[in-house]
Amino acid sequence: MSMSFERYMLDMVQPMRDELTRLGITELRTPEEVEAALPDAKGTALVVVNSVCGCAAGQCRPGVAAALQHDVTPDHLYTVFAGQDKEATAKAREYFAPYPPSSPSIALMKDGELVHFIERHQIENRSAQEIAAELDAAFDRHCR
C-alpha cells in the first residue's frame, strides 16, 4: 500500500501543530487568513512561526507554552507553519521586516506593528525557560 507524500507529511506534522493549537493558538493556514488577522489585530498578537526542526520541538514550542502561563499575555495568539503552509508563512513574514525569514521564530505585534522578534539563532542555543523569560519580559513591556 502506498501513501502519498502530502498525506504522510500531514500525518507527521499534525502533532507539531497540535502542540500549539491545544494552547489556544489559532492556525493561519492561508494568506487570506493571515491578511484577515494580522494587520487589523487590535492590541497585541503573538505569531509563532512553527517548524519541524529540533529547536522548534525542544525550545520554541515549550518556551511559548511556558510563556503563556505568565500573568500577562497577548490579546491574540496565532501560528503559521513554515514548510507546510508556505503561502501563509510568506504572507506573515511580510509583517516581520526588517528580519529575514527564520523558522522557527516568534513575533510580538502591537496594533499590527512588530514590537519584538525572536529569530531562529536566538532559539536554537537557548533553553525553553530562557525563551519563556524573554517572552514574559516582552509581554510585560507591550501587553499591559
UniProtKB/TrEMBL annotation:
InterPro entries: BrxB/BrxA. Pfam families: Disulph_isomer. Gene3D superfamilies: 6.10.250.2150, Glutaredoxin (3.40.30.10). It comes from the Bacteria. Belongs to the bacilliredoxin family. This is BrxA/BrxB family bacilliredoxin. It comes from Paenibacillus sabuli.
